[in-house]
Amino acid sequence: MAASPEPSEPRQQKTFKLLGILDVENIPCARGSVLYGSLGSVVAGLGHFLLTSRIRRSCDVGVGGFIVVTLGYWLHCRYNYAKQRIQERITREGIKNKILYESTHLDPERKQAKS
């Protein structure tokens, strides 16, 4: 007689943490920054190696390319993210005010129609 499986607590999905600290899945812009940074490091390092054939310097250029591209993409993405959040907040407040003041004496559209 097989025992029925006991209902277990819900399993939480493991998130991918880069170097154990950066939760790439839940932090906005982190995934794209790391991906574009790694691509930038490969392009910069390989390009420098093909031009100069100096291995150590090419690795240094690759690391520098990773840092520059990652930070550049991170700053650009976070700026756009913050701008979008501000626009969402303004829109949310506008909709809330529209719902709140609709059909009252404080409704700006109603005042314009009477004039």
UniProtKB/TrEMBL annotation:
Family named by the database record: Belongs to the COX20 family.
Subcellular location: Mitochondrion inner membrane
Protein name (Swiss-Prot/TrEMBL): Cytochrome c oxidase assembly protein COX20, mitochondrial
Domain of life, per lineage: Eukaryota
InterPro entries found in the cross-reference section: Cox20
Residue ranges of the TM segments: none
Any single Pfam family the record assigns to this protein: Cox20
Key words, A-Z: Membrane, Mitochondrion, Mitochondrion inner membrane, Transmembrane, Transmembrane helix
